[in-house]
Specification:
It is a single chain. The protein is an alpha+beta fold. The protein is built from 25 helices and 19 strands. A seven-stranded mixed β-sheet has the order 3-6-10-9-8-13-16, covered by helices on one side. Strands 1-2 form a two-stranded antiparallel sheet. A two-stranded antiparallel sheet has the order 4-5. Helix 22 packs antiparallel against helix 23. The chain is elongated and about 110 Å long.
């Protein structure tokens, strides 16, 4: 009996299917009374016993043990007559461990059967003929050596590794093409190295790494998609779709997420990890380690028990931010990726970039702004289908199931918060949580978000004090707006015309519309209006802005200090802290008295010398000392620099500086952010932090001028509430 089929890595080939059938026929003569036998697949390895139908299925999915040529475990004699062309001798010379991994990846991409029928039905029903041809071509490339007698690389493995190096080191397309030509000439005659970048991309697209092109109006009015896909002019502004000769003004890259969600379940390893949130997560100990521990997740489960009943139902977060792809050039360009993050995985895998699902790549040169919803349209349509469910296969349980998915919140910085939510984050009502109850005060040339005493109990003694802003506080705490309240407000919002065409008149908001600019397209999702936490505040950016305010004021950095002449005039207008008012000077006109919240020259030198001398572990943070200038100021700090400085370096750095009251308050603020950013949060501690941050902000109001309290400082008061709803900050 010819058993060379055992070494065939293509388990979808007719040769392999025929060989499995011969094995099943041979084994049927040695079955026990229940029809059970040992399974020689690569997973069971003759150690587990299954029904013969399950054994056949295992062999088609997991492959046959390569060294199991003599079927002694299934009743065969010890020395059968096996042809010289045995599986070991017939293994393709270029196949090695990395090719086995590639073959396994291709089998995952190819998909699995959804039921157990005859083997021929199993193979023929898996994919349409066109798709089958694509994977046949890929398996052919995997089996062909890069050149004759090559023992290390197949053609496909070489191309994949070469593309990986190109991406890692950011090679240009022209340099990559030059390298391909050189390699093609250097390798032996008849090699299978592609000559052009187009050939390389075409092969990789067959693996399923492609995307869809969707043309965009020049002014971002609409997508030429669905009913408008054949239009030549924009239906809103009337501008031509093309620059010239079918070349569009802009193109949206859309990466469908359904195939990639299915692939998460086509590998037994990731399929098992996608159940972690339900089967392995610790519960009921008062700790928050994962978004599933938060109130928002639990509320969603109670509202949609059918969705929550299957641990394979995928919950995702939608994240977006702008970046300049030409970072080393002076070109101003803003490109916006939209990424989906699957939260079914354990925390150490959730935020790993290999598990991010890029869904949209929105082109520049300007940010999408209020027209963000225009670009989200194809993704929203796909999410509606995923909410109803699509058929998929679970390799871990070896069963078909209905794959469902939902987006449970968004993650973005504050400007993008406005694009996604529809609530403008500028002006008097900039807080998207307090909404119309935002506490603010108009000061000279800006808005100050003071008034945090209104968050205190009505009987608190600080409410009667006039040391804060020159008056007592009688306002009740801001309301917690329900979904019904928000939907009622959105009903008053007028219809806006998308696009940035100069001919489109800018619509003025009515007073009844508050700060709403639109009703977000996300409300088209059937479940969106029921979510407790729709949009996350970005703790990293809030922390950076708070750190900039503190250090800019302490070190009196020009352009960043909140203690300027207008700030002193604000104090006079409010009738508080008269010792800090501007004083008349015969020569300079006015003199600004030194404030306790600003370092003296000696204190600034001591603090900056401390930062220069700090040594941090490798990989923990950058060299903070590089941000210290010769004039004892700070410049060029990134978000992570501010994170480390505020939480770890500021408290010991000010122990001998400033007044005791200010020093204690800043250390309390530092501890607040350190506890909030922990990988594990305690529910009781978060409840205390919710009260504590109000006290901290009230203390700061007594010390710093009103101009210190930007909207980012105010948002700190809402961070503990969002942590209770969504879980640890590191996952959001």
């Amino acid at each position: 009996m010819d058993r060379r089929w055992i070494s065939n890595p293509d388990r979808l080939s007719a040769e392999y299917e025929k060989g499995v059938g011969e094995f099943v026929t041979f084994v049927r003569g040695s079955l026990d009374v229940q029809g059970l036998t040992k399974c020689p697949c690569n997973r069971c390895m003759n150690r587990e016993v299954h029904h013969i139908d399950s054994v056949r299925y295992h062999l088609l999915i997991y492959g046959f043990l390569k060294d199991y040529i003599h079927w002694t475990e299934h009743g065969e004699q010890s020395n059968p007559q096996v042809p010289l062309g045995s599986p070991i001798q017939d293994t393709p010379p270029c196949m090695n461990d990395q090719d086995d991994e590639m073959a396994e990846a291709l089998r995952d991409a190819a998909g699995h059967a959804y039921d157990i029928g005859s083997s021929s039905d199993l193979l023929s029903d898996m994919r349409p003929p066109a798709e089958q041809a694509r994977y046949d071509k890929l398996f052919e490339e995997l089996h062909n050596p890069l050149y004759d007698d090559c023992m290390k690389f197949s053609a496909l493995t070489f191309i994949v590794k070469l593309m990986n190096v190109k991406v890692l080191y950011k090679w240009s397309d022209r340099s990559f093409v030059a390298l391909l030509k050189l390699l093609h000439e250097a390798l032996p005659v008849g090699n299978r190295c592609p000559r052009t970048y187009y050939e390389t991309r075409k092969l990789l697209c067959d693996v399923g790494l492609g995307y869809e092109h969707i043309d965009i109006c020049k002014h971002d009015c609409t997508l030429f998609y669905n009913e408008h896909k054949d239009d030549d002019v924009c239906p809103i502004c009337g501008v031509s779709r093309y620059v010239r000769k079918k070349i569009p003004h802009k193109r949206l890259r859309y990466f469908p997420i359904t195939p990639r969600l299915k692939r998460l379940y086509s590998s037994k390893h990731t399929a098992r990890a996608m159940r972690w949130h339900k089967e392995q997560r610790l519960e009921k100990d008062g700790k928050l380690r994962h978004p599933a521990d938060g109130e928002a997740w639990k509320k969603f489960d109670s509202l949609y028990p059918e969705f929550a009943g299957d641990p394979r139902s995928v919950r995702m977060g939608l994240a977006s931010d702008g970046f300049n792809p030409f970072s080393h050039m002076s070109t101003s360009y803003s490109m916006w990726p939209v990424i989906l993050i699957p939260y079914n995985l354990p925390p150490w895998l959730t935020m790993h970039r290999s598990n991010y699902l890029l869904s949209l790549l929105i082109p520049g040169p300007k940010s999408p702004g209020k027209d963000f919803d225009v670009f989200l349209r194809p993704l929203i349509e796909e999410l509606k289908v995923l909410w109803d469910g699509v058929q998929s296969f679970d390799s871990y349980q070896q069963a078909s199931f209905t794959l469902r998915a939902s987006v449970i919140w968004t993650v973005s910085d504050f400007p993008a918060f406005a694009y996604l939510s529809g609530w403008s984050t500028q002006g008097k009502l900039a807080c998207p949580i307090c909404l119309e109850d935002t506490r603010y005060k108009l000061i000279r040339s800006k808005i100050s978000y003071i008034g945090h005493r209104s968050f205190l109990e009505m009987s608190h003694s600080w409410r009667n004090s006039k040391e804060f802003d020159g008056r007592s506080e009688r306002r009740a705490p801001p309301r917690n707006f329900s979904t019904a309240d928000i939907l009622s407000q959105l009903e008053a919002v007028g219809q806006s015309i998308p696009g940035k065409a100069t001919t489109t008149a800018k619509r003025k908001r009515l007073p009844t519309e508050l700060n709403w600019t639109k009703k977000s397209i996300l409300f088209e999702l059937p479940y969106w209006s029921t979510l407790l936490l729709r949009h996350n505040l970005d703790v990293m950016h809030i922390e950076k802005n708070v750190c900039d305010n503190i250090l800019g004021t302490l070190l009196d950095i020009e352009g960043k200090s909140k203690d300027n002449d207008k700030a002193r005039e604000d104090l006079k207008d409010m009738g508080i802290r008269s010792e800090l008012w501007l004083q008349a000077h015969p020569v300079k006109g006015s003199l600004k008295p030194h404030a306790s919240y600003v370092f003296t020259k000696d204190e600034a030198k001591l603090f900056c010398d401390y930062l220069r001398a700090v040594k941090l572990p490798d990989g923990y943070a950058s060299n903070i000392g590089r941000c210290v200038t010769e004039s004892n100021k700070l410049a060029g700090m990134k978000s992570h620099d501010c994170h480390v400085l505020l939480q770890k370096l500021l408290p010991p750095g000010i122990l001998t500086l400033l007044t005791p009251q200010l020093r204690r308050t800043l250390i309390e603020l530092s501890q607040f952010f350190e506890q909030l950013c922990g990988r594990t949060l305690d529910v009781g501690q978060l409840t205390e932090m919710r009260r504590g941050i109000v006290i901290i902000l009230c203390k700061l109001e007594k010390i710093f001028p009103p101009s210190f309290f930007t909207i980012m400082v105010h948002l700190c008061v809402h961070l503990p509430d969002q942590a209770l709803l969504g879980g640890p900050v590191s996952n959001r």
